[in-house]
Amino acid sequence: MPAASAQPFVGPPPLRPTNTVGGPLSPQPGFEQTQGCMQANTGDSTIEEKPWSQLALGFEQAHEQGLTGSGKTVAVIDTGVNQHPRLSLTGNGGSAVPDGRGANFDCDGHGTIVAGIIAAHRDDSTGLIGVAPEAQIMSIRQSSKLFQNKAEKKTVGDTQTMAQAITQATNSGASVINISQSSCQTIAQASNPADEHNNRLYQAVKNAFDRGVVVVAAAGNADGACQKNPSGSPTTAVLPAWFDEYVLTVGSVGQEGQPSEFTVPGPWVDVAAPGENLISLDPGSGGSGLASQIAAGADGQMQPIQGTSFATPYVSGLAVLIKEKYEKAGTPLSAGQIMDRIKATAMHPGGNNGRNDIVGYGMIDFMAALGDIVPPEHGKLPAPMKPTRLSADVIPQKDYPALLVALGGSVGGVAAVIFTAFLVNAVRNVRLRQAEAAAKTKSRRE
Which are the catalytic amino acids? Predict the structure, then answer.
């Protein structure tokens, strides 16, 4: 029997303009807390060395140039963000979690890790610093796996609350929106033009884009509903990454520069960033130090911090610094120009058009993104694209057990949101590229 031919990729259905996203984000009724909140480290949580991801990306060079995210706000749409002495939190976020503790509380710990990667303040006792350490974090607590509706067998957070959260962030003045969560759906479901909740999510990201807000989202991890796409046409759509024109989607790479095998590949993956063996702020309630591992699973085993969730905030931080630089220069860039600049200056993999469906256009390059000339910004057209297929880009599948419980199933057409956090094991070292740049600078001076 001959093999079936690959079907062409089908994108999102046409957007049906809507003026509503189902009302403002508010606590969802019918949910009760079923697990205790993540607790802070009671021992010594000082980690003196700089994270490998921080060294590889080299974003402290941007800080030396005065680019720190000052005056900018990053909305973290997640499980909330705990108040930590090394974070500056705004007070205008919303919450869908019905515990009365608002957005600046994180029972799950996930959102606090994300916020720390973006905007942890400098502390001379440790090597860690956030990408944009003077940016403010607007926490929007749209999900939690620790609160369940037992009758409907689901947890807090779905595509409707995500659309509401994006709209709230846009209307509240966010410069960049970080979404380290995803809704994985079959292509058939995601392509259904009658799905009202997906359409609202589509409208929300487009509205943000049109208003100059950069939306950065995780590519998703292969687990449960998020299945790796097979050779040929993808079978799993990852939202909001699916709305690729308006969203910058991030895959993960490991410490040796290898693509992380848990990343869900797809034609919507734009770039990659470090996503294995990371360090961030202690995500527990009342935490004041750092964490390189957190308790995960029913047995509370300690696991390293890993996932496309945690690669995403590095790209959000870069978007903030680009926005800051060009606004200071009096030549602000649109959301689309910032997204294009990040993709154009990434360290491209081999193959057609310098991209593939696992790492997109490659690992981000901070100093190139902040300094290189991008032809389209000067009226020059990029080279024409060659046709590509997913088949050559898929990593062989392996059995990766989920160590972070996913949010529950969908009800009434509202697709469940799944944390894109894998806590299992820890970019290619970019010192060579930095050395080459330094050599060029030296030769020009000579």
Answer: 78, 110, 309
